[in-house]
């Protein structure tokens, strides 16, 4: 769908998921990206130098103005001067007050990694995998002052395959967004979409993951352990403590494979495909 005048965008996100979506909008002739907003560069490398977020690197690559506030309300006055049509967030990780949401001329909207009303919150992909869902998707919603509770502008679905981990789902959902978001934005600008209210009675939560949530115990079933391995493949990494040493597990199989390492859970063995002992290099076996 072609847009007569370029729609002006401000995009807020932090990681690879956001970066991939935003780069597609930067390279789309229907849009002009006026600024990018990212969380501060909180991580450091081995030499204790700050590591730029993927969205910060994207801003550098395309010479786009970048804001990295601790709280987004700090840059409210700067945002007002930009005179943009849409404010779009994707895995940004900050609460956005109404004073910022109201700046956009058309709408402030969020790309959420689940089929709302299910899995509102910071970790929808992880909770989707923990619950062994067979399908997931993205929801584009209006942002309001309640978490992921705004009216739904559009949804797109994808199948969850047996071998999919959080890494694969992040990629699938980014690609779904890249495919659908441009048309949704153009249709919104032309008042061609009627948003749907969420049914509060169907809402479920996907709270932020803590490191301890990723621990696996041999008292669990092998299926429960595998769900954790899939869900936490990206961050923080599923792990089990063996002989006071941490063993990180990135991929595993319920069916027997040629691997020297398996774990005995309450109902049988789980065969490790990709893993890393504390202080050692990562090991990967072919299935």
Please name the defining characteristics of this protein:
287 residues, alpha/beta, Rossmann fold, Methionyl-tRNA Fmet Formyltransferase, Chain A, domain 2, 2 domains, seven-stranded mixed sheet, five-stranded antiparallel sheet, 24% helix, EC 2.1.2.9, transferase, methionyl-tRNA formyltransferase
Short description:
The chain is an alpha/beta fold and 287 residues long. It is built from 7 helices and 12 strands.
Describe this entry's structure for a reader.
Its EC number is 2.1.2.9. GO terms for molecular function: methionyl-tRNA formyltransferase activity. Keywords: Protein biosynthesis, Transferase. Residues 10-182 form the Formyl transferase N-terminal domain. The chain is of the alpha/beta class. The protein has two domains: 7-202, Rossmann fold (3-Layer(aba) Sandwich), CATH 3.40.50; 211-284, Formyl transferase, C-terminal domain (Methionyl-tRNA Fmet Formyltransferase, Chain A, domain 2). Helices cover 24% and strands 25% of the residues. It is built from seven helices and twelve strands. It has helices spanning 16-26, 54-62, 76-80, 98-101, 124-130, 166-189, 222-231, and strands at residues 7-13, 31-37, 66-67, 86-90, 107-112, 135-142, 152-159, 238-242, 245-253, 262-265, 268-277, 283-284. Helix 1 (16-26) runs parallel beside helix 2 (54-62), helix 1 runs parallel beside helix 6 and helix 5 (124-130) packs antiparallel against helix 7. The model has no long low-confidence stretch (mean pLDDT 95).
């Amino acid at each position: 769908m072609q847009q007569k005048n370029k729609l002006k965008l401000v995009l807020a996100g932090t990681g690879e998921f956001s970066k991939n979506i935003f780069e597609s909008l930067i390279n789309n002739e229907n849009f002009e990206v006026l600024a990018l907003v990212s969380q501060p560069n909180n991580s450091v490398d081995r030499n204790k130098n700050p590591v730029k977020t993927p969205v910060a690197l994207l801003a550098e690559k395309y010479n786009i103005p970048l804001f990295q506030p601790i709280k987004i309300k700090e840059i409210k006055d700067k945002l007002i001067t930009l005179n943009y049509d849409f404010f779009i967030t994707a895995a940004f990780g900050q609460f956005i007050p109404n004073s910022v949401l109201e700046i956009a001329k058309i709408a402030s909207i969020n790309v959420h990694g689940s089929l709302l009303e299910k899995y509102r919150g910071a970790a929808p992909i992880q909770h989707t995998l923990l619950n062994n869902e067979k399908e997931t998707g993205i929801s584009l919603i209006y942002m309001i002052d309640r978490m992921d509770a705004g009216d739904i502008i559009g949804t797109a679905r994808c199948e969850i395959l047996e071998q999919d981990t959080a890494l694969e789902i992040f990629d699938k959902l980014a690609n779904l967004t890249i495919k659908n978001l441009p048309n949704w934005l153009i249709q919104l600008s032309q008042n061609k979409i009627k948003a749907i209210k969420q049914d509060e009675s169907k809402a479920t939560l996907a709270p932020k993951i803590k490191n301890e949530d990723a621990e696996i115990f041999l008292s669990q079933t092998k299926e429960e352990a595998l769900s954790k391995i899939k869900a936490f493949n990206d961050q923080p990494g599923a792990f089990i403590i063996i002989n006071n040493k941490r063993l990180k597990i990135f991929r595993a199989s319920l069916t027997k494979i040629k691997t020297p390492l398996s774990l005995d859970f309450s109902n049988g063995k789980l065969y490790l495909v990709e893993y890393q002992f504390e202080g050692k290099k990562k090991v990967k076996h072919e299935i």
